[in-house]
Design goal:
By secondary structure, the chain is α/β, with parallel strands linked by helices. It has six helices and five strands, in the order E-H-E-H-E-H-E-H-E-H-H. The longest helix has 21 residues.
């Protein structure tokens, strides 16, 4: 799976730790954010770069990082077909792809440690939407996602 990753200046070191971990797991990682520690990429630049490669299908999933995870998630969610959740736990990071069909994980360098960020990324990327769900629960989740997409279609002009 090809995974996009991006960060802004406050989160460069966490991004590098996460990128190293998921690369070691065999993911093909495309870095579209800050590439050197002394660069100065802004959160909205990194988020837009990442959202575009998810939206156009270059990458299947993405991980975007800023100080809190909040700013980048707000930007990423302005792109049709890109679904991002800011997470602060391994449990939530795993469930957003499994239950909600999110294709982008956001996290904050001032919120999670390098180890936790790596574990969050690992669980998020391994998650498969509705995997192992009973038929009715899978149908409910699919209906919920269809409702999300219809809300998106009505509100994204």
């Amino acid at each position: 799976m090809r995974v996009a990753i991006a960060c802004e200046s406050s989160s460069f070191l966490l991004k590098e730790a996460v990128k190293n971990r998921i690369t070691a797991l065999g993911y093909d990682v495309m870095d579209v954010g800050q590439l050197k520690e002394d660069d100065h990429v802004l959160y909205y630049e990194a988020a837009q770069n990442l959202a575009k490669v998810i939206q156009d299908g270059t990458c299947e999933k993405g991980i975007v990082i800023c100080g809190t995870g909040g700013g980048v998630s707000m930007i990423v969610n302005k792109f049709r077909g890109v679904y991002c959740v800011a997470c602060e736990s391994v449990f939530t990071a795993e469930k957003i792809s499994h239950i909600n069909n999110a294709n982008v994980l956001a996290m904050g360098a001032r919120v999670v440690s390098w180890d936790m960020g790596g574990e969050m990324a690992e669980k998020f990327l391994a998650g498969k939407w509705c995997e192992g769900f009973a038929e009715q629960r899978r149908l409910n989740n699919e209906k919920g996602f269809a409702v999300l997409q219809s809300i998106e279609a009505a509100n994204f002009k």
